[in-house]
Write a structure and sequence with these properties.
Length: about 90
């Protein structure tokens, strides 16, 4: 079964030909977890509508920032302060 969600009236950050950000008030139709349509006035009868007026519509953000090397130190300074964690010199 196809599922649809319509994000209505939100601000979508697009880019012009020079790469500058150009915010536009657009509707965004999502069908089965993929973007199916982005236009000024999308209409559909089957979609669950979410009013996004006054909001920025964007894809999910993934935080890829991590410090793998710090996992070795986990707990080593559990009773210490931040100043003890960093070496002085």
């Amino acid at each position: 079964m196809t599922t649809q969600m319509l994000r209505k009236g939100g601000t979508v950050l697009t880019h012009d030909d020079l790469g500058h950000v150009a915010p536009k008030k657009l509707d965004l139709l999502i069908q089965d977890s993929s973007i199916a349509n982005i236009e000024e006035d999308v209409s559909t009868r089957r979609a669950r509508v979410v009013d996004c007026t006054g909001k920025i519509v964007s894809p999910d953000f993934v935080d890829t920032h991590h410090h793998t090397w710090q996992t070795q130190l986990m707990g080593a300074y559990a009773d210490g302060t931040l100043l003890k964690y960093f070496p002085t010199g």
